[in-house]
Amino acid sequence: MAGQVRQECGQRGEVVAEYKTPVSMPESRRAFVVYMGTQSIIKGKDMAEQLHSDRESDESSPAFRILGQLEIEEILARNNVGRIAFSLHDRVDIQPINYVFEGGWIYGRTSRGTKLSTIAHHRWVAFEVDEVEGLFKWKSVVVKGAFYLIDPDTSAHQDPAFNRGVELLRDLIPETLTADDPTPFRNSVFRIHLDEVTGRAANGDAGTTPGKS
Questions:
Q1: In whole angstroms, how far apart are CA 53 and each of 11, 42, 58, 64, 149?
Q2: For residues 192 and 98, what is the distance between their CA atoms, to the nearest angstrom?
Q3: Looking at beta carbons, which pairs linking 157-161 to residues 24 or more positions away fall under 8 Å?
Q4: Cα distances (Å, whole numbers) of residue 101 to 83, 122, 123
Q5: Separation of alpha carbons 180 and 213, rounded Å
Q6: CB within 8 A of 112, min separation 6: which ones?
Q7: How far is 124 from 145, CA to CA, in rounded Å?
Q8: Taking a C-beta distance cutoff of 8 angstroms, is the pair 8, 14 a contact?
Q9: Three-class DSSP labels, 121-188
């Protein structure tokens, strides 16, 4: 009876080649032909599995996209914790802050000290807000603009921005700048204008560019 090997590969197991050995062929020769056919099958399956793995890898590669202006403003509006970065000479610092966003401005509170004295000499700051769900599933907004300190002693009547800033901050913490303020040492109100703003997302729904960051 003739020896026979069928080679299969691919996800559906299509027959690619068939190896038959005639009855008249010596037993040792038939065994060799069957062995070589078997090795070919193994290699074919390995190649198919590698191709399938490569396809899965391409499909799962992280994709990145640029956020639109509406998405950026929605992220700034629904979050209340961000990070402000500032520099003086060759030193750079970054600190977390509470904030509220309205009408192209970031409003926040701080205390007088090293941070304010530094920013007073260099008003250009960066502000970042992130929403992170996973290693390759996140959204990030970066704001660059000028830092304006609103002095309550002189600006309460002269600058309506102070009153509006306090109103917004009280939506976040009702006791802001009252006798019951939980952080009374943060007695300085500031705002940052959105002079430049950018946003990026990983594994977004639209406008994706696979594998590019």
A1: 12, 16, 9, 22, 56
A2: 13
A3: 161/105, 161/191
A4: 14, 22, 19
A5: 47
A6: 187, 188
A7: 6
A8: yes
A9: HCCEEEEEEEEEEECCEEEEEEEEEEEEEECHHHHCCCCHHHHHHHHHHHHHCCCCCCCCCCCCCCCE
pLDDT 10s digits, 123-161: 899 999 999 998 889 999 999 999 988 766 654 556 677
Residue 190 corresponds to which tokens in the numbers above? 């500031």
Q: Six-digit token pair at 163?
A: 């009153």
How sure is the predictor about 180, in pLDDT bands with cuts at 50, 70 and 90?
A: confident
d(CA 187, CA 181): 10
Judged against a pLDDT cut of 80, whether residue 34 lies above it is answered with no
- Which is higher by pLDDT, 78 or 36? 78
End-to-end CA distance of the chain: 62
Angle at CA of residue 154, ends 149 and 158, nearest 5° = 95
106 within 8 A of 126, measured Cβ to Cβ: no
Three-state DSSP state, 103: coil
How many residues are recorded in the chain?
Answer: 213
Residue in this structure with the two tokens 């890898």, named with its chain if needed: 57
Q: How far apart are CA 80 and CA 130, in angstroms?
A: 11
Is the four-CA dihedral 161, 167, 173, 176 of positive or negative sign?
positive
